[in-house]
Queue: 4 jobs
Job 1
Amino acid sequence: MADQIAPKQALLPRVRSVVIKIGSSILSGPNGLDRERIAAIVGDIAVLRQRPYQVTLVSSGAVAAGTTRLGLRERPKTVPARQAAAAVGQIHLMALYDECFSRHGQPVAQILLTHDDLANRRRYINARHTFEALLEAGVLPIVNENDTVAVEEVRFNFGDNDNLSALVATLVGADLLVILSDVAGLYTADPRTDPNATLVPVVAEINDEIQNYAGKTSGPLGKGGMGSKLQAARKANEAGIACLIADGRLPEVLTQAFDAQRSIGTLFLASSDRLTRRKHWIAHTLKPAGSVSLDQGAYEAVMRGGRSLLPKGITAVNGTFGAGECVSCLNPAGSEFARGLVNYSSAELQRIKGLHSSAIEATLQYKVSDEIIHRDDLVLLS
């Protein structure tokens, strides 16, 4: 395994904007929010702000805090009960953050997001402008899922804020994403059961071997697990953002994380093939509304030839969707290999699939584009 010191020495001088995600297991204990640990992490973040780094915080803990405040013995299992716990806990969580950061003279702002906020392009851009204004004013944004109104998020759509933190990192143009959890990083096996398990200090590429490691170590790490943390790392890396997963229970964990001479956790290096913000949004934020199946020629042209998708190569249209929506592209074996924004609705595609582009206008009596999905609106998936 590669040593972490040299990669950190190369990375840290380039870091200006940082997103820090803190898991529920770090913030809370049997008796609710752990005030002492939160105060310690806030102190670490205050030091980072003085260097100065721009810091955005993605925080879990609202449901856990609300569970205790409501006098419940265990985490609620129904969606309404979880939303109620989140509504109660969010106030307590933000009040504690405000109290702790105020001791360091650091103003904070609360931002609640849902998947729909990020899937809608206009709202996505508006959110980005809000973050930019806050960071420029020296305010530290604290982000959480809007659990009180968003059913899908309460049902773990973001994966305990892990995936949300990667999307926020892309949104604000961060250079580094730090995920603080209750594990020391990615291990080659489950360290609780395998004495030969070793920590992986650096991951240059999230390949099948690394995915296999995550499958062996996804124990009770909160609802996200190592699998969702690996997904978050991949999304960040594809956007050109390095990701560090570390044990948030360690004293001065962020001080160690930003010390180029210290090796801590697992550092996931950013991909050299950086996706643009728009393509990253298509690949990782939008939900496909349907799919189109491609023949072998179209698959080869899109996958390896860098071409746009034309109607001639479409063999089947699945689902109901409108023009401009995100759809999955399936290879001849039926596996998704790309996503993109379609120029025609599913009803229109049913009429023009398999035809040459020159026949579109004669068939529909109009033509929006020769391409079903233009290359600029198409993203190949890993």
Job 2
Amino acid sequence: MNFHRWEFTVEEVAREALVYLPASAKAQATPVVFVFHGHGGSARQVARNIEMARHWPEAISVYMQGLNTPGQLTDPQGRRPGWQSKPGDQGDRDLKFFDAVLAQLKKDYRVDEKRIYATGHSNGGGFTYLLWAERCDLLAAVAPSAATTRYINKLKPKPAMLLGGEEDALVRFAWQEMMMDAVRNLNGCVAESQPWDARCKSYASTNGTPFVTYIHPGGHAFDRGATPKIAKFFKEHSLAALTGGE
């Protein structure tokens, strides 16, 4: 895959992202998927691990690079790159970075504003939750992996896929299970699941905001078999469908 390295200056701080652009992105409305690395990771690393560009080549894929920041579970000195974990943290530097990248995409390409998505792993999954809370109206669906949030009260119903490993010793799977229950309830989903894909269960919603789980037998590392499932889930949802628009 051919990635473009984009550079930004956000409030006098240099930022960068790797962007995959389909050849048709200037000519026709194109979905956008934002992908966020975990704490200590990088845009290049997550582009290799969460290969959204390979599994959905018709969409624009954006792999943003975090800045050094204290981790909630590791790296309290903030010597490795990551993402803000709560609203207002570090002056909302990462939310502003997201806004800048999306604005540039809309300026230069035909972005389908009904089909913008976010996914991320670990700290990147936490930032996906933060986008859900703070930029909810922009996103058609989300898929946080190996992550939880303290801000469930700030979330609005939204098609969501949550991914987790049963042997996760960092973000304990018991915490993730509680998060799954909370999101299922938030989305107004039924208690009984239906098979959806390998390792996936789907919970129907009377609100049009279904919930899917992807549970694998591994630990904290991202399960690379999940990427085609995330792409499949995103393809099924758009803001138009949620709002009743065309």
Job 3
Amino acid sequence: MDLNKFENQVFFTTVRITIPNDDLRTSSVGTGFLVNVPLRKEGLTGVFLVSNKHVYGDSRRTIVLNFHKKRTDVDSPDLGSTAPAVIADFSAHYYEHPNPDIDLACINVSAFTGEENGVYSRNLHDEFFNHTDYSRILPGADISFIGYPDNRFDAIHNLPILRKGYLAINSCTNIRSAYYFP
């Protein structure tokens, strides 16, 4: 796998999110995407895990973030291994989209990522979104999406699955506003 190509790096922008249910035997699973976000202090960036509000649920519950583990000898992933971060209450790091009709939220995960934590990741940058021509995102457009739907993933390599499809009509409504975080 050539990790210099974006189409391969995108597998490492994802994190499998696991939230144990009250019975502690079952759990909810979702996908988060790592995004570098400029912070208010000039020149500093934070790493935020963007997902859906319904995936995160109650921010006072325990959450497990299944990061990709970094190999110790080279700058590459240790395929098949995870570097889990268990957070008992993530409410201090949790931010919901200000519009209640937009199902997006994020967690500041800066303290849990990076080489010092044994995590291998690639983060999306704001430039990725700034170059999107939203007028070209039309119903019926070919799309690819990546993630851990219904806890389906390549368990041998700890990688999300990549699927292709077509954009539905309702998906295009206010797509630009969905990417706004203050």
Job 4
Amino acid sequence: MTDGVYLIWADGGARGNPGPAAYGFVIEGPGLTRTLHGKAIGKATNNIAEYTAVIEALRKLKGLLGSAKASKAAVRVHADSELLVKQANREYKVKDAELQVKFIELHNLRLDFASVAFVHVPRTKNADADRMVNEALDVEQGSLSL
């Protein structure tokens, strides 16, 4: 039994691959104020940024709900990264060593919730999370320019 379904829209990106990278997410659900967040993470690949987005979104959701409520919550993660979704759903193996570390971190976070489902969505359906990524990169790159 779950207390409600919480929706996460997550995205990550890098300008260059690797290059300056950031993640963004949107969290929605029963009893929550819609939460949008984006943050630059330094130099990384697109795939690392995508995983970081989901990991940070799940951490944030757990913090918003508290451990007891999170343990009863169903979460649906929407991402436009087919690789991340297929790896999280165990359709693809995780071969890259850096991604294996992120995959294990993601797997461990999943255990804090009643269920976590991953859904691939087109980029156009993930616009708010994508905007958070680009805003974070713009701020970070603007602060580096003199």
